[in-house]
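Homework help board

Subject: predicted structure for assignment chain

Our instructor gave us this sequence and asked us to write out the predicted structure in token form, then describe one feature. I got the tokens but I'm not sure how to describe them. Can anyone check?
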Amino acid sequence: MERRTIGAAALEVGAIGLGCMPMSWAYTASQRNGEHSLRAVHTALDLGANLLDTADMYGPFTNELLVGRALKERRADAFVSTKCGLLVGEQHIVANGRPGYVKRACDASLRRLQTDVIDLYQLHRADPEVPIEETWGAMAELVAAGKVRALGLCAVGARAQRRAGARMHDATVRQLERVQQVFPVSCVQAELSVWSPEALEALVPWCASRGVGFLAAMPLGNGFLSGTLTPGQGFEPEDMRARHPRFTAEMMAANQPIVAGLRRVARRHGESVTAAQVALAWLLAQGPHVVPVPGTKREDWAAENAAAAEVMLTAEDLAEIATLPPARGSWD
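My token output:
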């Protein structure tokens, strides 16, 4: 697989990564299977999709434990990315950016992941009660201690800002400017896909101009852009899509032209090319610093996603994708 270099630390990773969250959290609990998920991880590593993206909150904790089982056998093959800064309660999630907590969280992640160093340690969310410089300073101390190789920041949740008319990632850019004064940012992670392109406005260019990598989260639109979901199919109560404004039956039907457009482009590249692969190839075309991180718990989809690195979109393809209708949600 093509390799991409991201960040001031010149981190080298496969052009497509593997999001591990669905293996343990937020999607179809009835379909989780640890052994099947491990096979998906091994398949991704075999194919060069070596960036494994997890977080302590996924589960919570169980996702890191699962990834740790794979790392115990194949640490040298993997680039490990995990996150800190969010605590999961019974009915809520809260931020904790206190320096002491961040250091304890890192030690706990190292134990669960069965490794002595984390390649990329990301701040999941800033704590509104703690200056972000203090949190970032504690994370920088982890680099100095040899427990972490590089630091990243996840984008602020921004749908409320979009409804209010503000630019979607202004708050994240302000945070980045502040922490960059403390210790270099190697990577930024935010939602980016054909149906959620907002990060292209300011966030992706900010990263490109500073040599910072960009991890494209939810690159397949929570599965919608794969074309494998049916309008009205319903989701399990704990599945995040059960409450997502783009996953009502009405909105899933309204957004089908996006999938149809991706399929049209896919057909030009061969019978075996899928809409999901075109969606991932579109992300790779947004810049050499962009690395999509599609999440899956299935071995076959991990292989399909990795193969998207071989799909080279033409100028005609990109122009056609640019004309697809914007996605609609129940807020529209």
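Reply (TA_rk): Your tokens look well-formed. For the description, you could write something like this. The two ends are 39 Å apart (CA to CA). That's the kind of observation they're looking for.
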